[in-house]
């Protein structure tokens, strides 16, 4: 349900107005506000409103996006890899969101950090990682630092590497496509297929191939950062990721359909395992890496 309420009386409290309009208890409304379901429009723009005791002014407008199913969702906690004060590095788990929606943001990385990181700081997302994927993410703790990282991503000064498990034998010498190029030494494949009419570039190399399951483990490095870039590039080459319910056919929900007992892959087999960049404050090179074999535990 959505509620859009124009304030006609100054001095009223947000929780009281919303509880009456939505016929909900104040406790339920307060919880929804903390989880990011309430927005306030005033002369300063539109932004989330979490403080239930906020006194409202005539002419302001409240927006309440209430979905109990969304608000009841829970996710596993992320792991703090490094706290650099003005920014931090996290290992985002499967299911956690990079960005919120108008309905809530309580399952996002930045909100979890804001509520749990000590000392308390604001959190700003500077890049995305699919909800179904896990791995390393940067979280800025000021708008200034977020702008610096955004500029670094735009100029491709940040190296990101991923480990993925795909269907098929990813033999780079045998793959044919107009959007690919075999790199020197015949180790890596360069994929330049545009995504939504925007330039996109991925480098993929084979790490291992399992003949029994007919699956390959590949390492991927991306220059651009388009939405679902790795998943789209690999799927369009005929090598969809295991557990990819968006870009794989329904038959790819199984490792090997010829086996008597199919092994269903519950999670997307994609992990962002490597980050490297020059710290925008100290100008020192920083590198973080996690064990990319961790995804096997989800298989």
TrEMBL record:
SUPFAM superfamilies: Pseudouridine synthase (SSF55120). One of its GO terms (biological process) is enzyme-directed rRNA pseudouridine synthesis. Residues 87-235 form the Pseudouridine synthase RsuA/RluA-like domain. InterPro entries: PsdUridine_synth_cat_dom_sf, PsdUridine_synth_RsuA/RluA, RluA_PseudoU_synthase. GO terms for molecular function: pseudouridine synthase activity; RNA binding. Pfam families: PseudoU_synth_2. Belongs to the pseudouridine synthase RluA family. This is Pseudouridine synthase. It comes from hydrothermal vent metagenome.
